[in-house]
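Lecture notes, unit on protein representations.

Consider one protein chain, 703 amino acids long.
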Amino acid sequence: MKKFYTKRFSLICAFAASALLLGGGGCSEDETEPAIGSKGVSSEVFVSSDAGSRTIKVETSGPWQARLTPETRLWVSVDGADSGETGGSLNLNYRTNNSLPRKGTILVSSARQQVVDTIYLMQYGTTPLLEFKYIGKQYSSVSTIDSVAIDTNIPLSKKIYWTVVYDENSAAEPWADSVSYAQDFKYFRFRIADNKKFEPRAARFRLRFQDDWGEDHTTYFTAYQGIPGGTAETREMTFEELRGLIAEAEGEITLDQDIAVSGTVISDWASPNMAGSPMLKAAAKPDLGINDCTAYMQNADASLGLALVTTDAQQNILQRYDKLKLWCKGLTLTKRSNPERYTLSGVTQDHIVTKEAGTAEELPAKRRFIDQLTDADIYTQVTLKRCQMAVRTGRFIPVHINYTNSFNNYYPAAVLDRHGDMIYLMTNHGCDWRFKEMPDGEGTITGIIVHEPYTFFERGGDIGRYQIRNVTREDIALDESADNVFSAVAVEWSPDGSKDPRAYAFPQYPHPATDSGQAHCVAATTGSGLSFMSTYAWLAVGSAYRAAENGLTINNASWGHKQLWDTAKNTGNSLIFEFSTQGVSSTQCSFVSTCRYHSAQGGLRYWTAEYSLDGDNWKKLTDFTVPDNGNWGNMQLEQLSGDKNVWMQVPTEILGQSVAWIRLRPVQNKIGTATTYDTATIASNGQVANAFTVSYAALRYNK
């Protein structure tokens, strides 16, 4: 040991009392009546922690006077005379001591001989307790602030001294400092500086308390700090050079070179929205630890990015905008194609060479429209311009809370931009905004561009080449008002969740294709339009997960039907949207609808969307699938216990029409079972086990 520093501070906390040191408990109370007088000496008188009294003999031939120091008067008093002409006695009363052992001071002066005798009244009490909760801890080479719990019963008014001693490998300057308290002063807090030398080092903290009886009580904690990631010979690579180590379209290698890369962290260990938690085949639940082990880093000009995966959540200490130099030796580099992306896994704190806090202002600004994204943007931070959510009045995760707790732990919500393109915004169940209503207006969304398959929507998980993950809710900078948005609603079905959709129905609506001249319909809530089944059957009314902030079901907010297949004609029955776009013109037009099966399994899997300008000739818009609802007993990878958003671009010829149609139609007689995706066929009556339902639909156009 070569260097130490000593400080003093007050301990501002008190803990539970330990065993009492009472008379007869190992240190007996002195029962002999002490005598003093004209000797100029001191005497110790030991008394129990219980209240009591003691008599002190005064042997002097002249006048005497007893005086208690101010601190002593707080718990000791004189019973009777405190002075005399010659000799006599001094009767002392003392209070119960529920704290540490204490010492009172009584001074007896003799006027004639001009001497002072001292009586120290030593009262037993609670044994002083001062102890670190653990004796040592290993730290990485990266600067950090840490706290160690202290178990103590020392009162607030007492003093505790701290000392830190460094070993021979320590730098000339102190590196364990900034001592203070944290969390109501029950923790010893200190800072560990960066270790920039390739030698491990240690610092030993000592806390020392001296009680009123003069006895020392000490405890020790040793901070061990490892060396920086890498060696003195570590060579730094660019992102391009690192990625070039795998020449094939896909591959995985363990890096055995002494190399490092530097960049800026764009994720945050504290964010609940860094990665999805897919449910592996035959797994009981999703892997919820993926989010906490995932980080992202981009290079200096934000032209390329890397995903980082730590060995466990405790190793992920990376904060947003940290400037990071990462030692790569021993890590696994993985390359995936379509889209091209790279991951470094096996990261620990020992791989960090340097880490320095940065700011958002230092990050290069990347602003894109959705169609401008490329594979080079993956795992970099991008701000998407002029965006809006596709489903108004929806929430970020329209999935029942019981299933987000257990299965569907993250969700893609459709985002549109001014150019008519769509991307999914990924939201994890851990986000505190997950069940909040999404903003209806226009703005920007800043986040990390990722590629994440989502099997709960699609078998195989393909939901687009790119998705975006925001780090905080503030990254979704959309206006709350629908008045400030680039698109307008031509027609929209968004029934009030507190009402039965039949409140919007027109049972006597005449339609030329019906025999009875009647059709049961749900009327549009914005614009002029109706929604009904092609069989003109009575619509089923169901629940939806569209607006409740507690994640629970809103009853009677969706409509649909079980009668989805005409077994005689071997064709599907459609849910039709009939509307007017008279007087509307634009260069961009799109249609969005939610869809799901009301509960359980057995729904027709494959669907198409079509439009018509005359009600007879239909043109295809897009194909899509509708997943089964979740199965508690045997949850499948392709089951979603909530609404799926289906978005499609629509030719602008649908605008300016006095009447036009869009229909959603099943195209294959293939249904799911409790354990399979599409291996069964529909019942002979053409009904699915649970109704196909919609809770929102809208035709939009750019202003």
